[in-house]
Design goal:
The chain has four helices and twelve strands. It is of the alpha+beta class. The longest helix is centred in the N-terminal third of the chain and has 11 residues. The N terminus is likely disordered.
Length: 243
């Protein structure tokens, strides 16, 4: 990713494609989400439209990539998992999470799905999500065990905004649409040759949800940390933390 020291890439709307019609047919019979969301809806993440639906009944019929298979196999071993699919002309992905251990669900021997994949992330949400106190969070947060997978890096970073977790901090520089001093939530981080970049998005009362997104150099995200944040996933690639 080409990046300046202070960088942001507001995502432009994707072109319409035939894939949306195909996925609509597959998702039309999906069961309603546990929060009574529509079985089929559209959310906009960083300027990209995603068709989203509950995949518990249909996931194995939708996609066959090794990354997606890896997560589907893991969630098939666990009960109570919240699982949802996201499809756009940029590609497809799925999210899965639950507030209990994933022990016994995930097997990472051999390096995961075929030794790697476009995007598979597994992690436990941060123990301290507001390290500098800027969000005013009180009490002990519920920690979730999360997995998500995607067909490519763009969808990977976008579906990271559709799961619980993240770390709150204040921005130390302005980027388009997000003034300096804003309280923001980092959902994933991307190591590059020019340093670590953070993918920011606002929280939501319920998921899935439409969200604007922002890239900012980690140097200007004042979390009090100088390296990767614990409990925050990478924005691409394969990285499944121990359950």
């Amino acid at each position: 990713m080409e990046a300046q020291q202070v960088s942001v890439r507001r995502r432009l709307p994707v072109k319409q494609g035939l894939v949306l019609g195909l996925v609509a047919v597959c998702l039309a019979a999906a069961q309603p989400h546990q929060t009574k969301a529509s079985p089929l809806s559209v959310v906009n993440i960083g300027g990209r439209d995603y068709l989203t639906g509950d995949l518990k009944l249909l996931a194995n019929r939708l996609v066959k990539t090794t990354s997606i298979r890896f997560v589907l196999t893991a969630i098939s071993r666990c009960r109570g998992v919240q699982v949802r699919g996201f499809v756009s002309t940029s590609g497809f992905g799925l999210t899965a999470y639950l507030p209990t251990s994933l022990a016994g669900c995930i097997e990472t021997s051999g390096g995961g799905p075929g030794g790697g994949g476009p995007c598979v992330q597994g992690f436990k949400t941060p123990r301290i999500p507001d390290p500098t106190g800027v969000a005013g969070l009180t009490g002990r947060p519920t920690r979730y065990y999360v997995m998500f997978a995607a067909s490519g890096s763009t969808v990977c970073q976008d579906v990271s905004t559709q799961v619980p977790g993240g770390v709150w901090a204040r921005t130390g520089a302005s980027v388009p649409g997000l003034p300096a001093g804003s309280v923001a939530l980092v959902k994933c981080q991307l190591p590059t040759s020019e340093g670590l970049f953070d993918y920011l998005a606002p929280p939501a009362n319920a998921l899935p949800a439409s969200k604007p997104t922002y890239w900012i150099h980690d140097y200007y995200f004042e979390s009090g940390a100088t390296r990767r944040l614990a409990g925050v996933p990478v924005c691409s690639g394969f990285d499944v933390f121990p359950p």
